[in-house]
Amino acid sequence: MAARVPAVTARHTATGIGRRTLDVLVAATGLALLMPLLVVIALAIKVSSEGSFLFRQVRLKEGRREFTILKFRTMRSTQSGPEITANCDKRITAIGAFLRRSHIDELPQLVNVLRGDMTLVGPRPETPALAARYPPECQWVLEHRPGLTGPTQVRSLELNNIPVDVADTEQWYLKHLVPQRVEMDATYLDHPTLTATLRVLVDTARHVIISCSGHGVQTG
Fold first, then answer.
1. 109 burial class (0-12, 13-18, 19+ CB within 10 angstroms)?
2. pLDDT > 70: what percent of the chain?
3. Could you give the CA distance from residue 60 to residue 144 in angstroms, rounded to a whole number?
4. CB 87: neighbour CB atoms within 10 A?
5. CB < 8 Å & 24+ apart, contacts of 72-78
6. Would you say the C-alpha torsion 44, 76, 69, 220 has a positive or negative sign?
7. 80 falls in which pLDDT band (50, 70, 90)?
8. Would you say residue 105 has pLDDT above 50?
């Protein structure tokens, strides 16, 4: 798969400005409206298990530069394990299982979007260690700004699921999930218009509602 680095044109620049404006408006509005919910979730995490209510981890943003991603903590902070977390991982707390299934654990990343580390729609941000092990044909996706959501999160549940009988979750993720995810991300990144962005955001809202009803999986 060839690298997908679009030429800089007036049209691309205008689209980029439009997407950034949408990022700021949605992230700022979302944080303001959801603040009561965020506080309740933070308190619930603190009460239910030891450690900070936030999970911080170094990820790669546009151009493979590092930044610190923010998520609600869904696992016990006293236990270590592989970077890729399957749904059956014993480190996941009771409230964490719900947060992961509903994708509510991702809400603090609205701060990352507001800062410009992430955008609303794009490929998921990867850790430096896993990114270094990406198949060569998938490396191009690391040059793009990562997103809070994207086609792989809402269009295909199997791209977010690791079988329970897999011994090496990281190897399985890199060999099977990454190529499929990158191929699907390319469908958006080739034409990242405002219309396409809004379509993914609407799909995301629908996907979250379905996930909150008890369906859906997550690996990132």
1. buried
2. 81
3. 10
4. 16
5. 72/41, 72/42, 72/45, 72/99, 72/104, 72/105, 72/107, 72/108, 73/45, 73/49, 73/105, 74/99, 74/100, 74/105, 76/49, 76/50, 76/51, 77/49, 77/50, 77/51, 77/52, 78/50, 78/51
6. negative
7. low
8. yes
> What is the chain's mean pLDDT, rounded?
85
Question: What letter does residue 78 receive in the DSSP assignment?
Answer: T
Residue type, 9: T
- 3 token code pair: 């690298």
Identify whether the C-beta of residue 192 lies closer than 8 Å to the C-beta of residue 13: no
User: Which pLDDT band holds residue 16 (cuts at 50, 70, 90)?
Assistant: confident
Look at the block and give the residue holding tokens 């990114």.
Answer: 131
Domain ranges of the chain: 10-212
In percent, how much of the chain has pLDDT > 90? Answer: 57
Q: What is the mean pLDDT of residues 12-21?
A: 78
Residue corresponding to tokens 């009771």: 94
Cα(210)–Cα(102) distance, integer angstroms? 8
Q: How far apart are CA 11 and CA 16, in angstroms?
A: 9
22 CB neighbour count, 10 Å cutoff = 18
Characterize the bridge pairing of strands 54-61 and 147-149: unpaired
3-state secondary structure of 93: coil
Q: Is the pLDDT of residue 10 over 50?
A: no
